[in-house]
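Entry 14: structure prediction run for L-rhamnose 1-dehydrogenase (NAD(P)(+)). Input pasted below.
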Amino acid sequence: MLLKDKVVLVTGASQGIGKAAAIGCAQHGADVAINYHADEAGAADAVAQIEALGRRAIAVKGDVAQVETASAFVQASVDAFGKIDVFVNNAGICPFHAFLDMPPEVMERTMKVNLFGAYYMVQAAANQMVRQGHGGAIIAVSSISALVGGGMQTHYTPTKAGVHSLMQSTAIALGKYGIRCNSVLPGTIETAINKEDLADVAKREYMAGRIPLGRLGEPDDLAGPIVFLASDLAKYVTGAALLVDGGAFVNLQ
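Run finished. Output tokens:
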């Protein structure tokens, strides 16, 4: 019970990594508020699974690309639970597309969701933590794509590098308030974001073959690392980035 009676907020938590993180935090004793954009059924299921663990949960609908969504999510969470201890910025999109004919609207939407959304969400959560006066933990879901390139991800990789950089800078800006800021960098995790891309059997097998642990990742593989960074086990960890990729990054040869 590493997060007993903590209040955890998770964005983009109706499916994938966000949902797994929300449930994983509840398994360790947290009450959880989730943000979601459109998946009503997924959000309801996440809430039901958390409540089945004996913890409280709410789901707050909102598009993280809209600035006002951040303050609304934080306020709804405080109204429900009275405080925020941990904030997990997870919401993100990756509509695969070639570089030379990248539509401006795809580029701009990806930036607004992944980077601008992260900035305003983290800012809103941090302000609440500062007002409370007892510190907190912020974890951002970046990506191995913050460290390596992708020919069909030229709009996506800069946003994930930005999220990683945001955690480094906020670690400095918020350290004096006792707020720790870290990022996790997943490798290839099977989620809705890459379902179509991994439908190519040859590519799927190639990707799995590049991973020393011999398999693609699952959303639940991120839950443990996120719980660790949220907990007091990581009380002296801030500004760090934790690769969760089965060894893919180090497998150059």
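Notes: The CA atoms of residues 146 and 187 lie 10 Å apart. Will compare against the previous run tomorrow.
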